[in-house]
Amino acid sequence: MTVTSGTSRADDRSATSELLVVDDLRTHFHIAAGAVKAVDGVSFTLKRGKTLGVVGESGSGKTVLSRSIMGLNIASNARSTGSVRYEGQELIGRTPKQMRQFWGAEMSMVFQDPMTSLNPVVKVGRQLTEHVRHHFNIGKAEARTAAIELLRSVRIPEPEKRFDNYPHEMSGGMRQRVCIAIALACSPKLLFADEPTTALDVTVQHQILNLLAQQQSERHMTMILVTHDLGVVATRADEIAVMYAGKIVEKAPTATLFSEMRHPYTQSLLWSIPKTNQPKHTRLSAIAGRPPDLINPPPGCSFAPRCPYAQASCIEEEPQLRTDGDTDHQFACHIPVGTPANSEAFERNMAAGLPQTLTAAGKMAAREDVVPDYAAIGAETNVDERAVAEGMSTTLRDHGNTGGG
Ligand code: SF4
Q: Sheet containing 239-244: which strands, arranged edge to edge?
């Protein structure tokens, strides 16, 4: 039985073959008002050992995408079409019973809120051993040993003692570590981490992200990291896919995305990251407007009502993913950021006093980093040490669990 590091995956360590190929995946939820197109034609390929960051606002389709790949959208009104090939095997069209052979040992998920993903009236040890015993058909004593080893591997202090804790007896960070231990129990090849740090405070977020990176490296896993925060994936993903209205609107290797972003929505997400060098009481930047109606999306580009560069052509024709020479960098925009046409469109909209353009102008005036500094974002989101109180000498170091995380 393997519950810790994935030595059985030694061959995968050097492998660069494709683990997952998603082609034109669509997941629609049929309700009385029509079909909610939560995922609408998503395609990408993920190689073994790599991390794909999937980024977007709430409602952009990123969580439904993960669940569609894992076959977890079991609502009777959900329909998934297209193709998801995992190690060459087609997953779309399989029943939950057929998918069970993939859950745990092949792919697993860490959910957003550890309090709701753990059973509050069952001790964490039992929740872990049930999982392990179910998959490996082993006895209680052996499962207990394996579970304690798992808790140790995710840096839970005194795992023998914590084994008998209920979830409410643990901090939020520790509960998330237990969820990670459960997700890793069967050594999956593909791990989905769906907003794994959203419910946690910032220092614990950092510890959990480092833990995931460490486990990914030790177990040679492939990972899909889902988040609304570009800063989270800035230094942790090999490639980033930005989703809007159920579609990928920009996809590129991480460094390329930050240094040469083309889509205005990606730019708006970047502007919305709070910066530590901002003056105190600076208002947080929000993206103007609301996400579109996924039943009746606006004509043409679905970002047009919120885009500071929108022109008539944007409403007339829906932009398709295309490249600009670099085949690894795809974006769906008629007037991409960084082009003369984009600057001209902005000036035209400014002159017309369009509200979303004025809002964008305010953000530009407030910041010097209209062209983002990728290295700075990485530095801000990937520090090993953070001061926790000004004027005090206390610091948190990420060399182990502090007890709170
Ligand atoms: Fe903005 Fe037009 Fe590009 Fe859509 S196609 S993101 S509206 S510039």
A: 107-110, 190-194, 222-227, 51-55, 239-244, 247-253, 330-331, 322-323
3-class DSSP state of 225: strand
Distance CA 50, CA 220 (A): 9
CB 196 within 8 A of CB 63: no
- 14-28: b (≥16 Cβ within 10 Å) or e: eeeebbbbbeebbbb
pTM metric for this prediction = 0.85
From the CA of 334, give the closest atom in ligand 1.
Answer: 5
Domains of the chain: 9-242 (3.40.50.300), 268-370 (no CATH)
Which element (helix H / strand E) includes 162? helix 159-162
Output the CA 297–ligand 1 centroid distance in Å.
Answer: 14
Least confident of 8-17, 97-106, 199-208, 282-291: 8-17
Tell me, in angstroms, the distance from the centre of ligand 1 to residue 342's CA. Answer: 9
Tell me the per-residue pLDDT of 213-266, one tens digit each, with 9 for 90 and over.
988 988 899 999 999 888 888 889 999 999 999 999 999 999 999 999 999 999
Report the distance separating Cα 374 and Cα 353, nearest Å. 31
Cα 217 to middle of ligand 1, angstroms: 38
pLDDT in tens, 174-220: 898 999 999 988 889 999 999 888 767 777 788 888 889 988 988 89
